[in-house]
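thread: overnight batch results

M.L. [08:02]
morning all. the overnight job finished for the chain we discussed friday. pasting input first so we're all looking at the same thing
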Amino acid sequence: MGTGLLLGGAWAYQSLTFGGFWAWDPVENASLVPWMVLVAALHYMLLSYKRDKYYYGTYIFTFLGFIMVVYASYLTRSGVLGETSVHAFGDDGRSFQLILFTIIFILLPVWQLIKNRKNIKANDLPELFTREFLMMYGAIVMLLAAFQVISTTSVPVINKLFGTNMAPPSDVVNFYNTWQLPFAIMMTLLLSVGQYLSYGKNHFKAFLRNIIYPFVLALIVAIWGFVSDNDMSIVHGVFLFCIVFTILTSVAYLFRFASGRGNSAAGITHVGFGIFLLGVLITFSNTETLSKGGAPGMPGGGDNLMLFKGMMKPLGKYKINYSGSKDVRDETFHQIDFLEEDKDGELYHSFSLYPSVKYNSMMGNVHNPDTRNMLSGDIYMYITFAEDRAKRMPDGFVYSGSMDFALGDTLRAGNVPVVFDSLYISNMSANAEQISIVAMLKATDSLGVEQTYPLKYTVNGGMAESGVAEIPGSGLKLRFDKVSEIAKTINVGIFEQKPEFVVVKILHFPWIFILWAGSIIMFTGITVGIWKRAVKARNAAE
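M.L. [08:03]
and the structure it wrote out:
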């Protein structure tokens, strides 16, 4: 499940345009919460295995994890999240079955727990200064974090049940990040300290002697990071300390395993978890929008950048150039070149990105980003606006609309006013299957001389052909589309000569490889743990 979450985040980062690894979309949250609860259950299981107690907590956390899976199915498949999530299914009429399924799997475990309560021994709470205490309360903190996520995600369900009109948070990323940060700080702190405690009684002096070195080193790193980053908040500085503390204590735990006193799988997993959180903190608290410029709300304004074909624009240490586009079936790829200066001041091609727009008249257009992966960070780009290439003629004229043009009227679509001067009908057959209609247009050329431009509409054998007239100096072409129902009026398509352009958004995610490295290390640890337990079980069977 955790691997699926990370792969989903990686896919979203590479394929979607929200600009990030995790958007806190309700459907994403519905898949995250079961994982969080099951991770807490896993640690409770370990407690029960090691100490032969705390079975109530293990049972409750385990069936809560499954209930969250079932409830997530209801959220995603009932249509209740249709207004708040881009991933949710529509209501297929099975909402009642999903609700009934969820209720059944809530009642069954509760009934089993009540039925077998006499067979499950109750235990006192563990002492404060023990690994049991920290693991237990770490699991509870994880459960509280999961509750915060699922309760906010369930706002549409609450509205549906109670007829309320609560609105989900407007800035969901900032909302969830703010709420989850204290939980993350508590979990990393409990994890750091817990690795220096044993099950049962511990000696406080020995604990201090062992933990003082990673504590001081983590404090030094956190202070250095806080001083170096002028934009770092105090709470992020505290989080940085807790993350580094977790990494150092987990590495120390691995060294203890080398001397035969630990579990390598847990150590590797916790190191990966700490590195993953470090990547999240560094990358997403320092994400930079490179394409800022212009007036917000305007094309190429705010966080967007308008690029005209063949015209370079500065972007940090780069100069970028929109060099053209290429159609592949129903998808248009736009080539954006990034150039750098060498030591002699000459420009050279560094790399190109190919964000695309996939056109779909039924479902709407899909904008696919492209990313340049580098050690120091990723440059991430997607198209926020691009012309529909079906509206652009090969000579650069772009269709901008159509209008009725009455005899004697003046059209002011280009640089030169165009007058509808006269209308002629010729070559009309007896059955009207062949007819030629000519509209005579008048406009003044660049020398001030009035010129006449014929615009034809021909029907031959039931097939219509629309003529096109270009008005020199006006940047305008007119196409005779059809005869209007209004007398002495024709309908003309208007094509204006416009430079080819795209509007893009460009983001920089610094040091995001740390996040990916942490993910790989974390799941390497989980794989090692599964393998070791499988070997142990096989040896026991033999």
